[in-house]
Amino acid sequence: MQPRITSIGLLVKSDPAELFTYPDHIDRGSLDALPSKPGIYIFRDAQERPLYIGKSVNIRSRVLSHLRTPEEARMLQASSHVEFRRTAGEIGALLLESRLIKEMQPLHNKKLRRTREMCTLRLGPDVNAVPEIVYARDHDFAITDGLYGLFATRKAALERLRMIVDEERLCPALCGLETAMRGRACFARQIARCLGACIGEEAIEDHYLRLRAALEEMRIVVWPYPGPMGIVEECDGWKQTHVIDRWFYIGSIDHVKGAKPVRQPARRTFDVDTYKILVRPMLRGELRLEPVKLARSVRSNT
Known about the structure:
9 helices, single chain, GIY-YIG endonuclease, alpha+beta, 3 domains, elongated, four-stranded antiparallel sheet, three-stranded antiparallel sheet
């Protein structure tokens, strides 16, 4: 809090929260209870329906910023109160937010609330392999090698492949984007946009290696561990372990007495949001990781 001088010269301290005008229709008690700690928050209406779910390393500050945002007036007008759930860190907040949005389907989380049927480009190890589009319903992306890119639609995957082929002067025919007769140049070669692998002017092996190199930055990382791993976070002496297996968030273990047990899911499927949250910090070594053995004695808050 910053000190200030009053009209009568007294030095006092002001709290920004005290100067803030709270909406009358949102329960003040629910706002006053918000902690300045990591976690998720849920705006609910009078019928307890979730309107919006968000996350922050400072729940209180983030919620107050919503109340100051005119663009969110429609959501705020329908809100009756705000609830929160603490996590021990930012990763836990991100994972919990992603899960709850899928489960609760809040009205104003339109971009994230639907579970998407993803597709990807697959390129086999043979030099004559042609990129093909495959879907998550048919392949477990977490354990399948040779997958590149995550796309919401087949059209998006094809557009990205066309862009790569054009930029790298690859052969559209050998990449499955057009039909060409054996021994005849593809259209791109005829306008000098292909190095000629279709007519033997570039070795098939060299073309394949150039294609793989161009796709590499989009490669989906196969789950690099033999089993579940725990991501450990701590805050104010409170420890949580977020359990991940095959890029699927199983739950968070609270290392406190009386917490609910974590349960092995009946089926673990690659989750695109969990993957995007974790893959970069995990590969960079930014996360505190440890193996986890799930058992009935393990306790969890989810």
